[in-house]
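re: ur question from yesterday

yeah so i grabbed the chain u mentioned. its 340 aa long if i counted rite. heres the sequnce exactly as i have it in my notes:
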Amino acid sequence: MNGMSNKLRWGVLSTANIGLKKVLPAMQLGEFTTVTAIGSRDFGKARQAADALGIAKAYGSYEELLADPNIDAIYNPLPNNMHVPWTIKAAKAGKHVLCEKPISLTAAEAETLLAVRARTGVKIGEAFMVNTHPQWIRLRELIAEGRIGELRAMMGFFSYFNVDPNNIRNKIDVGGGALMDIGCYMVHAARFAFGAEPMRVVATVDRDPAMETDRLTSALMEFAGGQAMFTCSTQLAPYQRVHFVGTRGRIELEIPVNAPPDRPTRLLIDSGSDLFGGGITVETFPVCDQYTLQADAFSKAVLEGGEVPVPVEDAIANMAVIEAIFRSGKTGMWEVPQKS
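ran it thru and got these structure tokens back, copy pasting raw so excuse formatting
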């Protein structure tokens, strides 16, 4: 990869806020990652973003960006309904793709990526950046070594308040709503911790009367080894927390998803010996940026021929659970996640 063989050269589809504010500055700090181009449907916006972030090239269309032979991989933070179409176009252009979560609108749509990946030979991953954060890696280690006995339950909560009808997260036709935007992390967390897929789910979904997006969704997922439940909302005070409870202890992730890039994170292990917290051991993780770690893990997988942190198979399984939760919200019944 001419002259920069130690770094994967990335192009970015769109000047989406998450990219400009959080992901791209972090990617630029990567050991195996460099962002060389950004594309927008508006050349002025692309140029402005490129200048602000020190990115060499700006393109006034996504097509031009994909045609650049000096780009190895694409980061796709487009609206949810554009994830799969543009991931497919990027793959056909021979680019590896890291696509924002949720990877698609349905499990069936996500499944179309399997054939494309097989045909093009590129790597495709979903951007659940939590997978590569030290606090989540440590969580899995602690569960595996039996620190809390046998994991039997997960309880999660994730919310923010946003009632702006012009915000993309509040638009139903592009895949907005609480479950798609933030509930997906809770589904992912349960599958990550149990290391399995839920057998069935049941949920209650409250939709905004005007915007029609789900604004308050609660779900219960039944695993062979236990149960996971969560509530997510786009119209509640901002809060996030996840508890993993076992037969001999509990692990709490204090800031499970929006781990700060500028101060340490903490994981709490509670033996349960004292309801006032006397049995709590705190593990602190040094300052790191999970978006840097995510991009580097993906880049490394491409450069060294390994597996990306969240491959298409995992993304499909997560979407299948999300869809089952939506179905249950309509039927009021237990629903089984369906993959073809």
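noticed a couple things. The radius of gyration is 20 Å. also The first strand starts at residue 8 and ends at 13.
anyway ttyl
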